[in-house]
Design goal:
By secondary structure, this protein is an alpha+beta fold. The protein has helices spanning about 5-20, 30-40, 45-55, 90-100, 120-125, 155-160, 175-185, 200-210, and strands at about 60, 65-70, 75-80, 105, 110-115, 130-140, 145-155, 190-200, 220-225, 230-240, 245-250. The longest helix has 14 residues, at about 5-20.
Length: about 270
Amino acid sequence: MPDPMWRQIAEDLRRKIEDGELGADGKPLPTELELQDEYSASRNTVRDAVKWLVTRDLVYTRSGQGTFVKQQAEPFVTRLTPAGSAGLEESRTFTSDVLNKSRQPSVPPPRVEILQADGQTAPGLGLAAGAAIVSRHQDRLIDGVPYSRQTTFYPMRLAEQGAIQLLQARDIETGAVRYLRDELGITEVGQIDQIAVRPPDAEESAFFGIPDDGRISVIEFTRTGYDESGMPLRVTVTTYPADRNQFVLTSGEIPKPALPSDPGPRAGTR
C-alpha cells in the first residue's frame, strides 16, 4: 500500500533538503501555493508534509515570515574547567580552541556601549540600578555559522580609573582580565558561574537561525568575576544554541585519551 500523499511530499522535500537542492543556512522553503502547484496537492496535504518536516527538525517556521530550511550545524565541544573556563572569557581563547580543531573561527570587533545597570546587571556588579556600566558584546561564528554570543558588563569606575581600552571597539590583545591587572593592579581571584537553559528571545532566534517557539533551547552561562577585596569586576553572559554546542567539564589531571573528541556530523549534516 503506497504512503499517503502528504508523506510522499514530505519524503521528497526531506531528500531535497539533505541533498542541498533547497539550499541551507536559513533559506526559505517554497510557499504553500508553490508546493501545491509542484505536487498537485491540496493545502492541507502540503501543510501535513511541512508539519512532518518540522517535527524532524529539518525546517522551522516564523510567524508571518514563512518556513525555512534548518541549518544542520556540526556540533562543537567546548571544554570547561572549574576556573578560567574556555570560551567564557575572551574571544582569543575561543579563536584558539576553534583553530585547534581545524575549523574556521570568526569574531567581529566588539560592540561597545555605555548603559545604565538594570535589574539583572546591577546586582551582579554590586551597583545601584541606573549606575553607568560598560557593555562589550561579540558574536562568534564557526565556519560561517553562528555558535555563540557573549556580552561582558564592567562597572564604569574601571574606565574612569584608567582602563580606557574597555571603551574602545576593538579586541583587548592581552584579554580584559589581564589588562585590568596590568593597567590598574586589580586581579580577578575568583568567579561564580551560573548556568541556565531557556527559550531563545526574538533576537537570538534570528541570529542563530533557530525556531522562536522554544523547541531548541539556548544555554546561558553567566560568570561573575571578583577581585581580592570581594568586589565584582565583571559579569560575562555567554549564550549558546543547544543544537550545535556540547560541553565537557574537566577537573584535575586528565590523560588525553580519556578526553572525548568532537563528534562527527550528525545524520543529515553535510
